[in-house]
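S.,

As promised, the GN1 run. Input:
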Amino acid sequence: MKDILNQFAIRNEVADPEPLKIGFINESYVVRAKRPGEKSYFLQRINHHIFQNVEGLQQNIQKVTDHIRRKLQTAGETDIERKVLELVPTKDGKLYYKTPEGNYWRVYVLIENATSQEKVTPKSAELTGEAFGRFQCQLADLPFDELCESIPNFHNIEFRLQQLDEAIAANPVGRKGYCADVIAAINKRREEMCLAERLFREGKLPKHINHCDTKVNNILFDEAGRPICIVDLDTVMPGFVLSDFGDFMRTAANTGLEDDTNLDNIRVDLEIFEAYARGYLKQATFLTDLEKELLPYGCRLLSYMQTVRFFTDYLNGDTYYKIQYPEHNIVRTRAQLRLLEEQEKVAEQMKAIIHKLEKNG
Ligand code: GN1
Ligand code: MG
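Predicted complex:
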């Protein structure tokens, strides 16, 4: 591990890396400064099985953080090093280090005195909405095609349905027969759910840079409980704003769990919906009328997408998502499908809330 750290342009003396238990995808360590007041670091081994284009991924992060830093400087903000992540290059100026064994490592400057939260309240949902809205707004003038898709077609529902169709046709572990109801529910909504991709092809719906993992735990809060910095930038890539809005609602505005075995626990939490939407609309001033109109649809799209992704993984024999028990992926599938049905029931209420917020804030 010392050899790895030695590759990076770290100028102060640091202690040995201590492992951190966060996230399922990368392996993370904190590297503390030996002297108080000096920089500490965040060392990560990048999961290159999931992120196969590490060069593109690191370039994305560098472009996005540089762009945000310039915006903060222009706005005359202070404390900028806590408001945007900073990659530490290697001594030969690269954004990551590849070991002789083929592992990839990167280093960020550690953001001090910041914590993350696992649960949302209406108050933190509003602040989180503001933070993700501001993030998208800061990136709205960065042409979306300057970034690569760090996971190709990540939030492209047409592609996800194609993967599902391949899994249904191959039926590699013989699970299809028990799931005719799920297949029917997915098929019934195909056309509606491919609307965003169609609108993009028709030139009506733009792509922007999205975070693509808008969970509350991907925001760092300061000592006063205010969001200071958005983290976990691995999936930052071009997409529809609906992705980030919808994925937050999928994970936070659900009274049940993502894998709830009791489907009756699952309902839409409209209070969280309204709070996040209020914060988001306040900051995301670049949105077109069509994008705003489609926000409730974006919630359904992301629940549908996750239904399709969990179900595909179930049919393929659980090769992507980590599972805790054999039926986990079908339980997740049914829970996401129920959330979608609940979102359909309150679609008009969601629309009315967006209209109200547009008028009154
Ligand atoms: C994965 O591991 P986590 O929770 O950050 C997935 C998301 C899914 C989520 C479902 C790179 O995210 O897209 O929405 O699981 N991330 C990747 O819980 O596939
Ligand atoms: Mg993540």
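The chain is about 45% helix and 10% strand. Residues 213 and 235 are 7 Å apart (CA to CA).

- D.
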